[in-house]
Write a structure and sequence with these properties.
- With 107 residues, this protein is an alpha+beta fold.
- It has one domain: Alpha-D-Glucose-1,6-Bisphosphate, Chain A, domain 4.
- It contains three helices and five strands.
- Strands 1-5-4-3-2 form a five-stranded antiparallel sheet.
- It is globular and about 35 Å long.
- It comes from Methylobacterium tardum.
- Pfam families: PHA_gran_rgn.
- This is Polyhydroxyalkanoic acid synthase.
């Protein structure tokens, strides 16, 4: 049975600033994931969100990132074989989102 992760992280930066910060950090994040043998493909922004697919441990993960004026949403669907790592994935996502949305926006 697939595992779903949904995170909503509030912010007061406005959607445009959050998208700008995400765009600025995307290359860094993709390089870091590649070092861990995780490949990620992302679509362009459309209507305040973008979708992604990732491949890790021979399994596919799909999801989307949605930026609203007051919150950042991350949704992901993964097979149960990767879903066992969901608590760790959620913790890492929250950590980097908090850093991204903090003053200075360092991720």
């Amino acid at each position: 049975m697939p595992k779903h992760i949904t995170l909503a992280i509030p912010h007061g930066l406005g959607a445009e600033e959050v998208r700008r910060r995400l765009d600025r950090q995307t290359d860094w994040a993709l390089r870091r994931l590649e070092k861990e043998n995780i490949s990620v493909a992302m679509t362009d922004w459309s209507q305040g969100g973008r979708t992604f697919t990732a491949r890790a441990l021979g399994q596919d993960v799909s999801g989307n990132v949605v930026v609203a004026d007051d919150s950042l949403w991350l949704e992901a669907k993964m097979p149960w074989t990767i879903g066992v790592f969901a608590p760790a994935i959620e913790a890492v996502a929250k950590h980097y989102a908090a850093r991204l949305l903090a003053p200075g926006g360092v991720a």
